[in-house]
């Protein structure tokens, strides 16, 4: 089953929330930390409402994650980055 982008983001928010600390953090407590209504967290997690980029930035800072971790990984993305680094490393060692 494939999910939409917003569903994926919602799943990641829930994953980060439930894995936070030793026991996770409740929707109520996270809402308080984010300065939003409690039902907003639920709506983000169920993809009823899309979090704004500002919301995702706050969540990323709170959970100590990169904002990219909320989004699906694209095939070959890491490979391309590693290849770029390898090329840069090779060109600097030649000089």
Overall body shape: globular
The CATH class label is Mainly Alpha
**Corresponding CATH superfamily:** lambda repressor-like DNA-binding domains
Main sheet attributes: strand count, strand direction, barrel closure:
none
- Give a count of the beta strands, DSSP E runs of length 2 or more: 0
Which spans have pLDDT < 50 for at least 5 consecutive residues? none
What's the CATH topology label? Answer: 434 Repressor (Amino-terminal Domain)
| Fraction of residues in helix | 55-70%
Q: Please state the CA-atom Rg, rounded to the nearest Å.
A: 17 Å
Span between termini: 50 Å
SSE sequence, one letter per element: HHHHH
What does this structure look like?
There is one protein chain. With 95 residues, this protein is mainly α. It has one domain: 434 Repressor (Amino-terminal Domain), CATH 1.10.260. It contains five helices and no strands. The model has no long low-confidence stretch (mean pLDDT 84).
Write the layout of secondary structure elements.
Elements: H1 5-19, H2 27-34, H3 38-45, H4 53-63, H5 77-94
Helix pairs in contact: 2-3
Name a few traits of the molecule.
434 Repressor (Amino-terminal Domain); globular; mainly alpha
Summarize the structure.
With 95 residues, this protein is an all-alpha fold. The protein contains five helices and no strands. It is globular and about 50 Å long.
């Amino acid at each position: 089953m494939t999910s939409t982008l917003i569903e994926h983001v919602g799943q990641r928010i829930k994953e980060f929330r439930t894995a936070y600390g030793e026991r996770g953090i409740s929707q109520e407590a996270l809402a308080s930390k984010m300065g939003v209504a409690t039902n907003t967290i639920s709506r983000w997690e169920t993809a009823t409402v899309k979090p704004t980029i500002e919301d995702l930035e706050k969540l990323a800072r709170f959970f100590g994650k990169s904002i990219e971790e909320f989004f699906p990984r694209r095939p070959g993305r890491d490979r391309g980055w590693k290849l770029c680094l390898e090329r840069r490393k090779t060109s600097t060692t030649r000089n």
